Amino acid sequence: MTLTDHVASYIEFQRATGLSFQHAVPLLASFAAHAEAEGEAFVRAQTCVAWASQAKSSRQRHRRLRLVRQLAVHLHAVDEGHEVPHPDALGRGTYHRPPPRLLSPLQVRQLMDAASQLPPVGSLTPVTFHYVFGLLASTGMRRSEATGLTLEDVTPDGLRIRKAKFGRARLVPLHASVRSALQRYMGIRSRCGSRSDRLFVLAHGRPVRPDYLTATFIRLARQLGLRGGPGKPGTRLHDLRHGFAIRALESAASGGRSALGRHLLALSTYLGHASPAHTYWYLEATPVLLDQVSAATERLHSGRRGDD
Which residue out of 66, 101, 165, 222 is catalytically annotated? Predict the structure, then answer.
């Protein structure tokens, strides 16, 4: 078997466990092509490090090494001819969760308006981006969940998410205004004659790809001055999800600790988190939430529990 065959088999194995492995596929394919260009049929530690070192940033280099090392461990268990690179071959990497850069409602509206001006003007493409950005901001869905929606997934009870992270399915209830907006979009879409069953399609009739959605968001964010040039930090598409979660928590924070706890559990389910623990970090994301947490902590230690 070639390394390309090994990679394909490994991806199939990972997907069988419930992982989409979507982001890893092009990277692993790139590694296999690089190694095969060097005449190798087995994973070599030195080649892994050389390939990972091609990435532009330290974070990307460590991510590449971690990914290809996982592949090597998997293959080494079957054939010891495959070498496993040392986890610290590029030095010790530390991961820092990027802070959310929240967009105000006005900025979200500016982003949606800018999407409406995308080429080709007058086609379905700008309409689709306008509505998909609005849906992400108003529901906190992941990009892959939104682009994976089909027409049948729009139900009277909400949006049926079948392609969620870790293979979990869930139902996302919709506010009346969001439902009305989706109905408007579906009316426009129906007149374009696309044969795809996907909800969000472009002028050529094919579905929106997650990576193209991200690239379009970044381009519009730079156009609006919400993000710097290449390599500079700034707002990300995922921040639409963060913004939804944080505003949802801010609206519940004044209800006391018990109310906030219930809201966290409901929000965790709504967002499709594997555990409420993955939702907790949003409590640190804005001054409003930090003040609420700080006040609750002071009352607890002073013995004045109040209505917490």
Answer: 165
* Nearest one of 22, 24, 48, 284 to 167, comparing CA atoms: 22
Question: Could you identify the residue written with the tokens 């399915």?
Answer: 169
Assign 227 to helix, strand or coil: strand
Q: Would you call 131 a catalytic residue per the annotation?
A: no
- pTM here? 0.65
Q: What is the pLDDT of residues 203-247, one digit of tens each?
A: 999 999 999 999 999 999 999 999 988 877 789 998 998 888 877
273 is catalytic: yes
Told to judge if 97 belongs to the known catalytic residues of this protein, a careful annotator would answer: no
Annotated active-site residue in 241, 242, 257, 270: 241
Task: List own/partner pairs for 168-176 with CB under 8 A and 24 or more apart.
Answer: 168/272, 168/274, 170/269, 170/270, 170/272, 172/139, 172/141, 172/270, 173/270, 174/139, 175/138
Q: Is 23 a catalytic residue?
A: no
**DSSP strand pairing (170-172 vs 154-155):** unpaired
pLDDT in tens, 118-135: 999 999 999 999 999 999
CB 226 within 8 A of CB 113: no
Catalytic pick among 82, 142, 227, 242 = 142
Closest to 217 (Cα-Cα) out of 106, 143, 121: 143
